[in-house]
Amino acid sequence: MKIVIVRHAEPDYLNDTLTEKGWKEAKLLSKRLCKIENPVFYCSPLGRAKDTASLTLKETGKTAQELDWLHEFKGKVRKGLKVTSCWDRLPREWTKDLRYYSNEQWLETGLMKSLNVKKEYEKVCRGIDELLKQHGYEHKGNVYRVNNSNHDTIVLFCHFAVESVILSHIFSCSPMVLWHNFVALPSSVTTLVTEERENGTAVFRCLQYGDISHLYAGNEPASFAARFCECYDDDTRH
Predict the structure, then answer these.
(1) Is the pTM of this model over 0.90?
(2) How far is the C-alpha of 161 from the C-alpha of 74, rounded, in Å?
(3) Residue 48: what pLDDT?
(4) Distance between CA atoms of 71 and 147, rounded to whole angstroms?
(5) 132-162: per-residue pLDDT in tens?
(6) Taking the CB of residue 105, how many other CB atoms lie within 10 A of it?
(7) N or C, which end of the chain has less CB nearby within 10 Å?
(8) CA-to-CA distance for 230 and 119, rounded, in angstroms?
(9) Taking a C-beta distance cutoff of 8 angstroms, is the pair 196, 150 a contact?
């Protein structure tokens, strides 16, 4: 089976919708996704994800099931008196502590234990496991038991931080590296496919991560949203 994870198009965060550019991105994305054979669509409850999905759903005549755990990741941490997201940390806050690179230990750091990160992480992990089990693949340790081998394609319209959580769970790795060393730009497509090289057992492999070839095909430049300054002195987002 295939998992296609789509990040929403360029967001208007203030109004939880898309910018004018974002709607252009979503239109180009829809022309790409409508070519998928017999997809099953799932969507975050947030407006920017639903707006992104809407053009593909209109193009295909399908509907999407809304899943609360596809909401942008809700994990928060407390540092002093300030409460912020767990997934936007400066390098000095985590890169020297090797526990952040461990799938088993990153949640045991003081910062991650300060509020609700473990609870929210486990919620997303349960969500993706339940969904994949419905489609025939049951998470067992670091692999999947094949209960129903198939060529299903599920498409998840969601957000960068929760996408990274999903990938970290499927690949048994810390999401810290995905949050901070990878970036899925707006409207990007990440595709995973099962490999069943041993009877009854499957693993997922990534065929493409953060692909925006649909934007190139439409002569639409990539959005800078989700990125930060390339050089410290740049007059761009810090």
Answers:
(1) yes
(2) 9
(3) 98
(4) 28
(5) 999 999 999 999 999 999 999 999 999 999 9
(6) 14
(7) C
(8) 33
(9) no
Residue indicated by tokens 């540092």: 79
Q: Report the pLDDT averaged over residues 22-26.
A: 98
SS (H, E, C) the chain: CEEEEEECCCEEHHHCEECHHHHHHHHHHHHHHCCCCCEEEEECCCHHHHHHHHHHHHHHCCCEEECHHHCCCCCEEEECCEEEECCCCCHHHCCCCHHHHCCCCHHHCCCCCCCCHHHHHHHHHHHHHHHHHHCCEEEECCEEEECCCCCCEEEEEECHHHHHHHHHHHHCCCHHHHHHHCCCCCCCEEEEEEEEEECCEEEEEEEEEEECHHHHHCCCCCCCCCCCCCCCCCCCCC
pLDDT tens profile 162-193: 999 999 999 999 999 999 999 999 999 999 99
Residue that is written with structure tokens 């070839």 in the block: 213
Asked whether the beta carbons of 157 and 43 are under 8 A apart, the reply is yes
- Strands of the sheet containing 143-146, edge to edge, are 64-66, 39-43, 153-158, 2-7, 189-198, 201-211, 143-146, 137-140
In tens, the pLDDT along 224-235 reads 998 999 999 998
Q: Residue 150 is encoded by which pair of tokens?
A: 């198939």
Encoding tokens for residue 12?
Answer: 């208007």
